[in-house]
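Weekly sync notes, structure subgroup
Attendees: PM, AL, DS (notes)

Item 1: joint prediction request from the bench team. They want all two components modeled as one assembly rather than separately. Inputs as received:
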Amino acid sequence: MAALDQIKTIVVVIMENRSFDHVLGYLSLPRYGGRTDVDGLVNLDTDPRFASEYDHQIYRPFPMADGPLLHDLPHSRREIAVQLAVSGGTPTMSGFVRAYVEASHSIVEQPPPLGYLTPDSVFMSDFLARNYLVCDHWFAPLPTDTQPNRVMAFTGSATVDDTKSRIIPHRNLVFDWLTRRGVRWRAYHCGFSFFPLFGEFDHILGGNFHSMRQLASDIASDDDDEVPQVIFVEPEYGDSPVHFGFSPNDNHPPDPIGPGEHFLRDIYTALSSSPRWAQTMLVVIHDEHGGFFDHVAPLPVKIPVPAGALYQEPFVTTGVRVPALIASPCVRGGTCYRGNLDHTSLLQLFAEKFAGDRRAYSDDVNRRLDQGIESVSSVLSPEARRDVPAAPATAVSVTQVLRSTKPIINENQKALLLAGQKLLAHDRARAIRQFPELGHLQS
Amino acid sequence: MRAQLFVALRSVVPAVVLSVGCASIEAFSANPRTACAGDAVTVTWAAVGDVTIGSEPAVADIGPKASAGSQKFVVERDTRFTLKASRLFSCKRTEADVVVAPPGREYGGVAACSTAERAIALTVPLGERQVSSALKVSSVTNGNPRPIVLAKGSVRATIPAGGRSAAFDREPVAGTWTLRADLAAGESCDDALRAVASRLTFRVGFGCGE
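Output from the run, pasted for the record:
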């Protein structure tokens, strides 16, 4: 494919815990342009698809100002089952308020899971949506929380179904796959990274992991034969056990989304101001919906429980839709792609690009492909554009509550703490050189 | 000496943390969620930790409470009740809203379809959790994309899609409502449920007093 040949660097950013309707649903509202090509929010007062029920009362989506929330929203496998509210085998997507009340004991007139953001709050996502491409049927691979969905993104295989404090069992880790094929890759991280959770510490400390602060300078100084073909850029995770020099910008509630929008602007500006932008594709997705409402039912994608998995009940659907934006000279500006995608669509893309066959990643990925999950290459346009829209200079004022990272309270925090401690035990000097914040962890 | 003290403290602190534990909230509600001015609403709570009941705007007798309990508070306007449970190392907070005499509300939920009866149907019991006994119906609107038969007690009305009915005016909102939407000729349950996104709802306009 000519367009895919033109791409030399694929940049992947995976943010945390927001649904499509919550972040980009407004694009369909008349007040914000009423895009009919986007499957977003419409007729909110009357359309039954937007009615959530709790205790026989109906709640509907409402515009929400960005800011810290009182609680994180429920998004475990069990809680998502409540949100999907399957009736007669069909997910009705009507249980988001119920799941929230059950988890938080909070019942308010405007339940946060039903809040949708507007361009004032998501200025950078809005910019990317209007100037580049929205994927409005990109689903989290699994109807569960962070770790399983990120494992799917980076391996294609669901070895865990929940988020726990542990080193995650895995196979076909994307870094191994890329390395085996001689593909140059790099990961940029703000603070501590998610990847140590896979336990492959020599990868982590082997020179491919750089601070986010080096992104722009690396792009400017890399020789052609050094430029990574795949780049992962990680935000500062709110669940990191230690923050040192960065504030959370991963979009994970209860933190606001504003810092994440600034983070995306930094990435886009660094990439698009480089002469190599003409051969670059930036993919921005979210790992899962995080408990926020979405009106589109997950796709029926059945996968058997893989060998060595830490659970018994197989998944029979994807997760909920997540916001997905693709910026590149090789996509048509201001368009929407409706094909079915999930995080394994990235692995298909790598297989197609670097092995010449989209089925070359793994049987697990192919099983999803056979059930209709497409490669990201589907979005590419044969006609490259030459203009480079400038990122908005919008100044956003948002309240962010900077909490202490102690006490460690949730499983993902515990997991990242465990990974940090193990990384220190593996090679303390190199670990601290790579992640200086680890010096502040109790070993 | 300082090092010994540090070691001693380090061995004690986990035990202290364990003994004081974390605050948690087991239950919180303020009912009815829709009230009339002057109604007494019942706030019920259960928590672990030192409990404070608050409200915005403030109502009489809020403040520190036992870790579990139930108390009536009189509301004159929209009120947000808060529960704060705190212990040495953590604090939890949650909220419950009571709305006073809103113009109306939508009720309903996920409906079931009967092939034998050729209808989608739903029962909506509205009791003291949802509505004040003083609330009266001022209008009923069918927001569903098809006609419904709405019934409560001895009153029954067929309301076209998007239409209104005055049949229930001045009836108490509290009580058991039933909704029924007949299948069209030749229509399957699956198609009918798809057409209404598996939901049936109705909107009630409210009035308090007369």
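Discussion: The domain at 2-379 of chain A is CATH 3.40.720 (Alkaline Phosphatase, subunit A).
Action: AL to compare against the crosslinking data before next sync.
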